């Protein structure tokens, strides 16, 4: 293989990868200088000129002419007068000899080694290009095509044929892809394993949800609305805290869109993940109250030392605060940065409870049995009803019911 073929093949690859000309020349020069050092032990007195466009290569060995008896005659950059005059008869002492070295002078083995070195340089360059390209895109959304589905990951290819990886742990649990599908994801990270770049994508990262909002909500993209924080349980639920520095813009309304048009596009991409968009505020209690939406909070107690918040709600709001699978309270805790403990707000009769059998010395046993038939077995369960409710549910007379209420209330008053 001659120099022209070597240079042209490398230049063609370099151009296909958008490698700039100085980088291309530097790599070629490194390869040829390595050949020179292999043969002559040094390349300090060699001039290497490469024209990548034409595939031309010129290598000149530069040496100063010295007297045949000079002590410097063995220096790498010196040549005796006798040897110099073999190249050009009219050379004189003190002049410089530019001796052209042909690629064939290095020998077939050296040329083959140079070819292998150049191939390796090409591969290394390709890896560097891939690594640098995707490292600059970390946190950005890309689209790629599925070409192989494995047990623990999905392999995709980008528009240039590069392999990308979407691990199982970075997939939304409801994701179902087939070969040929186009997948949206963010570039999560780029790892270098044994010299090979591994581009890892993610669909579960909060950043993926943030980028989707930027795509669907112009105010977010333009910076008029700021996404303060996102917490997710991928495929199930997410909470997004937003704020606007312009009082004329409703950040929640802008993110949701007319009739939910904007947020629906995001929800569909996330496999129907339930997204709560809330207004961010510095008021911690108000922030917690909004974070627990759709539950309505009655009161809040904050312990800054332990980073815990006690939230009190009416009985019918507790399940809403906790949410299906506990996701609502879990995400609310992550959003505000405090552990949230939910408590059922007690009415005046719920602070304590007593079994009805404890009143057998004041209330006849048959009356207690009658109450138990209707599912009332504690004092507070009876007091939670009105006199009319108890009359309707039992066959007891009004006077008896009034007496029962008096006895039970007296117990709690004590």
What is the strand and helix layout of this fold?
Blueprint: H1 3-16, H2 21-40, E1 46-51, E2 56-66, E3 78-80, H3 81-87, E4 96-101, H4 108-135, E5 141-149, E6 153-157, E7 163-167, E8 182-193, E9 196-202, H5 206-216, H6 218-221, E10 225-233, E11 237-244, H7 251-256, H8 261-269, E12 274-279, H9 284-291, E13 299-303, E14 308-313, H10 315-322, H11 327-336, E15 339-344, H12 365-373, H13 379-383, H14 387-393, H15 398-413
Parallel strand pairs: 2-3, 7-9, 11-12, 14-15
Antiparallel strand pairs: 1-2, 2-4, 5-6, 5-8, 6-7, 8-9, 10-11, 13-14
Subcellular location: Cytoplasm
InterPro entries: DNA_repair_Rad51/TF_NusA_a-hlx, KH_dom-like_a/b, KH_NusA_2nd, KH_sf_prok-type, NA-bd_OB-fold, NusA_N_sf, S1_domain, TF_NusA
Protein name: Transcription termination/antitermination protein NusA
Short overview:
The chain is α/β, with parallel strands linked by helices and 414 residues long.
Q: Can you describe this structure?
A:
There is one protein chain. The protein has 414 residues and is α/β, with parallel strands linked by helices. It has 5 domains: 3-132, N Utilization Substance Protein A, Chain:P, domain 4 (2-Layer Sandwich), CATH 3.30.1480; 137-202, OB fold (Dihydrolipoamide Acetyltransferase, E2P); 206-273, GMP Synthetase, Chain A, domain 3 (2-Layer Sandwich); 281-345, GMP Synthetase, Chain A, domain 3; 356-413. 39% of the residues lie in helices and 25% in strands. The chain is built from 15 helices and 15 strands. It has a 5-stranded mixed β-barrel. Strand 6 (153-157) and strand 7 (163-167) form a beta hairpin. The chain starts with a helix and ends with a helix.
């Amino acid at each position: 293989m001659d120099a022209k073929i070597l240079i042209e093949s490398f230049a063609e690859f370099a151009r296909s990868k958008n490698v700039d000309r100085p980088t291309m020349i530097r790599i070629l020069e490194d390869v040829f200088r390595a050949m020179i050092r292999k043969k002559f032990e040094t390349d300090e007195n060699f001039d290497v000129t490469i024209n990548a466009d034409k595939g031309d290569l010129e290598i000149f060995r530069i040496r100063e002419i010295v007297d045949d008896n000079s002590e410097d005659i063995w220096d790498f950059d010196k040549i005796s007068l006798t040897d110099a005059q073999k190249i050009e008869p009219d050379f004189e002492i003190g002049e410089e000899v530019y001796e052209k070295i042909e690629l064939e002078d290095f020998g077939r083995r050296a040329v083959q080694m140079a070819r292998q070195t150049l191939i390796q340089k090409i591969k290394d360059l390709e890896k560097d290009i891939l690594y640098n390209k995707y490292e600059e895109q970390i946190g950005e959304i890309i689209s790629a095509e599925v070409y192989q589905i494995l047990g623990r990951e999905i392999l995709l290819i980008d528009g240039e044929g590069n392999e990308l990886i979407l691990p199982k742990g970075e997939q939304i649990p409801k994701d179902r892809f087939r070969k040929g599908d186009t997948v949206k994801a963010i570039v999560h990270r780029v790892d270098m394993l044994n010299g090979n770049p591994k581009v890892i994508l993610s669909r579960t990262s909060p950043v993926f949800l943030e980028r989707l909002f930027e795509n669907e909500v112009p105010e977010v993209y333009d910076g008029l609305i700021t996404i303060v924080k996102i917490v997710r349980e991928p495929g199930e639920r997410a909470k997004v805290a937003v704020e606007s520095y312009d009082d004329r813009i409703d950040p929640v309304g802008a993110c949701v869109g007319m009739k939910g048009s904007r947020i629906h596009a995001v929800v569909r991409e996330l496999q129907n993940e339930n997204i709560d968009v809330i207004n961010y505020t510095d008021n911690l209690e108000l922030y917690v109250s909004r974070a627990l939406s759709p539950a309505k909070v009655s009161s809040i107690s904050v312990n800054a030392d332990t980073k815990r918040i006690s939230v009190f709600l009416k009985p019918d709001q507790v399940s809403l605060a906790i949410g299906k699978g506990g996701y609502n309270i879990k995400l609310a805790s992550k959003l505000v940065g405090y552990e949230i403990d939910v408590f059922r707000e007690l009415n005046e009769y719920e602070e304590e409870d007593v079994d009805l059998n404890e009143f057998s010395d004041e209330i006849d046993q048959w009356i207690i049995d009658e109450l138990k038939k209707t599912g009332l077995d504690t004092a507070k369960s009876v007091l939670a009803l009105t006199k009319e409710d108890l009359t309707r549910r039992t066959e007891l007379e009004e006077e008896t019911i009034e007496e029962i209420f008096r006895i039970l209330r007296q117990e709690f008053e004590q």
